[in-house]
Amino acid sequence: MLRQYVHDVFRRLWRTLWFRRGVLYFLRNNLTFGLMASAFVVYGFLFFALNTIYRDIGASDQKLTRDVLRSELYDFLLITGREVDGTSILDNPRDFSPMRREPSVIELRRSFFSYPLTKANAKSFRLANVRVDLPRGCLLEFPLESAADSGPREVKAVQACFAVVPWDPFGNYIYFALRYPSTGAIAHRPGHSLQGDGFELRFSREGRPERRLRVVYEGVSGLPVSRKLPGRYDGVFELVAFPDEANRPTPLVGGQAIERIEEGDASTTMTILGRIDGSLLGLPTGAGAQDEFLSMAKSLRLGFSISRTGRAPYIVSAATKGVAKASFEQAYRTSVSENALLTIVFPGTTTPWWSSSGLTPTDLREGASLLERLGRSVLVLMSRHHEQPFVTKEVSIAGKGVAEARLALMRERIPEAAPFATGLLIAALMGLSVMVILFWSSIARLSQLSRKAYAVANITPEAGAKEKFASRHSQIGTLWRGVRFLLRQEVLRGRELRDEAEKHAKTAERERVALRWIGHQIRNPLQTLTNLDGMPLEATRQMDKLRGALDGLNRLSIIDKDAELVGKQAIPLDIAKALGDYTAANNSPPEDPVEYLGPRVDVWVRFADDGLEEILDTLIENARRHRVPWTPIVISLQVDERKEPKAVAIVKVFNQGEPFKDPQRAFERGYTVGEHGGEGLGLYMVQAYCARCNGEVSAENIEGGVEVVLRLPVIRDRG
Questions:
Q1: pLDDT tens, 430-466?
Q2: How far apart are the C-alpha atoms of 387 and 411, rounded to whole Å?
Q3: 249: burial class by Cβ within 10 Å (0-12, 13-18, 19+)?
Q4: 566-713 adopts what CATH topology?
Q5: Partner of 210 for a Cys bridge, out of 132, 168, 204, 548, CB 3.0 to 4.6 A?
């Protein structure tokens, strides 16, 4: 029932002109439409593959991403956590955020300064028991290279820290700490020169002159001395400071220095702890000037230099940037490997306490290929509208309260293999697009070809396996019928040309036989006439010419057969060795010298050995007839690698003598000039032999003589 209904609908539609034309147009262009449909199907498969990768990433990688982010957030908080003294770099993100910064006064919640040696602990003092824990966020490290007057260069590091404490109960002090490799400090003696072991601090701020503090080391005094341990205080020095160019020390600078071998390090280290009263640097003092003191102290520009006896000083200018032992940037780059945003925010505020938004993303691997970068970019665009995974953790900040640390992925986490696979799919998509564009531009030509093929498609198809294609009223059938017709025409044309060539060959053979018979019939009476007595001299000369012409005619037929035989017998031949052997066998100085110039072996061409020897005999004999007497005949060989697609071996035969009158005609059959001319078949034979072996021959007039040049293709594979 349904089948009959569909059949009736199709018959009614077929009666309409537009439907019938549409169906016929589709059939006549079914190849074009089929290729376009195939392209769209491939497009669909590629988009399906991309969508599958995208869905797999979104479905299977979410949990793994959150676990990774949680681990990275905990690592960050661990790095930025509490110091030994209870402080944390989370307390001051403004000063502790950059990883590299210039020397400056920063703000600490608690002072690190203390006197390692005092009267209270003098009796129990042990240098090895002294512990100095400096806050990592404050400590800057300056890798410095120094060179002494003699000895190898050495690379060391100087650590420095300058800080103030808000509402410091001890006063308005700037605390400082220095640590550097020491070579054995020599204590300064009062009243002596300030040159020697020590350091100099330089402070400057806008609109004020620079202040300098020259600090030297002096031995401790006023402490009880033990007879049992006379060297108990060795390695401990008092800091004595001289402001600017003053000759007297100032009591506004205090501190101590400890020189000892640190644990885990074989070298000696000098650790300095000190403090400077703000009034010495022109800073405000008093309990009511704390805020102004902090502001002015933190605006100071700092520089310092460390002097060592017999060694070059360590110099750190105010513009030198050091690496912080701990910082927000360092902690972020060390712990977070994804392209994630980390923020620390207090509840109820919109401005973050700290954010990593200013740091460069780190998830793009260096050295990634173009396909990987392209695939990653596409996957990022596909996942941009999705909510990115994040994790949070509460963190306590002293004096501020509890904040929330949030680590959120800035874009979807992408597995390592996905970008490359996506890049390959995109490359395939682009290649397919190029093919479609090229094919679309060729549709007009294909339609034109289809119309021409349709014009010849009315030929009655031959019976056979291909009949079903030839009889189809479609573009494929039309093209096939046109191609089949053209192929058949070409086959018939080839047969006609082959038959015509066979006829010419048979005709040429009959002509050779006839000429040979005619020459034989003429030669005997001609010989008889020549031998008669009383023949005029002119008649005898003319009959000799006629006999020579008959001999040349006979030889001409022999040359053509021999040339064909040379082509069939051609084998790989070391022409360099053949030329060398030929020259050695035919050189007869001084009256008949023949020289060879060129390589001796390993230049291979395809030629018959006997044919090459016959060519050389002809060229040498021809050169001997036309050369200047007693001058050498020179055979040379060289290989021209510039010729494409094969290199060419060039053989030249040179002799001094008169130039060719017409070099282009020198190889014509029967062409000869001069009293030394022969039958005019020698150079013709040379050209015929070379042509059978894919070679060329030419004659050239050069300075001092003439040259016959043979060019033969060089062969690499002698198999």
A1: 777 777 677 666 666 666 666 666 665 555 444 443 4
A2: 9
A3: middle
A4: Heat Shock Protein 90 (3.30.565)
A5: 204
